[in-house]
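I would like you to help me understand the sequence and structure tokens below and explain how sequence relates to structure.
___
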Amino acid sequence: KADQSADTLIAGGKIPELILILPDGNGRAGETSEWGNSFDGRQLMETFVAVDLVRYVDQHYRTVADAAHRAIGGLSMGGFGAMNIAVHHPDIFGSVISLAGYYHAEGSIWGNNAAYLQANSPADVLPEEKRAWGLHMFIGAATQDQPYYTDSLEFVQELAHLHIAYHFDLEPGYHAWNVWQIQLYHALLWLRWG
């Protein structure tokens, strides 16, 4: 659906051409990846996205190879992963789109290690990671989508407290494609390159 939204906006002259890369974020069998580097080091999804994939795309496609012309986004676990990766790599990604995301790491991938959980929780990292304060952030939530709605509200309140700019898109609805399709359309219109 992301490619259809982008194609519609490009064809209508509403956004410039872009390269849309949609990697598979599934982890090892029986585990989610959370789009992160696992505590045990056996699954390096963040490194794959922020280093390996970016390098490959820049080498094989017509890109403008800088953070100001590169965005990362996702929904649900992908929204969490996009924000986490962007906060860790503001030199790679200048914009981030998090739809129905959450902002505190959880799950076995992090090894149940409190310090590693905190280091992979955007809500905990951002107050100290001032390099990431310049990220262009688009955060989407739906009014009936718990716990993601509450997580998103708390996150944007923290951003406001830190005086970090963001765009918050709130739609009626649940954790569902019909909400994300609207928000993705809004997010693609919101992106500004350069």
